[in-house]
Design goal:
It is built from no helices and three strands. The protein is an all-beta fold and 62 residues long. The protein has a three-stranded antiparallel sheet with strand order 2-1-3, with no helix packed on it. 5% of the residues are buried. The structure holds zinc ion. Zinc ion binds next to loops.
């Protein structure tokens, strides 16, 4: 069974087994609040490749 990750409004993240995309989200085991499904799209590593966006070549301003 696939494991989905949920995130509560309180900030608590937990995983839960789901047989099939359940229409309802599980309650937060910590505070019992509403949780939202989290898609593991962005993996660890928040270092984005900085693109050229700064002072580079000096132009001979006249
Ligand atoms: Zn919570």
């Amino acid at each position: 069974m696939p494991i989905y990750e949920f995130r509560c409004t309180c900030g608590h993240t937990f995983e839960k087994l789901c047989r099939s995309s359940d229409p309802t989200n599980p309650a937060c085991p910590k505070c019992g609040g509403v949780s939202e499904k989290v898609f593991s799209s962005f993996s660890v590593g928040r270092s984005a490749p900085a693109t050229g966006c700064g002072m580079g070549e000096a132009q001979p301003g006249g």
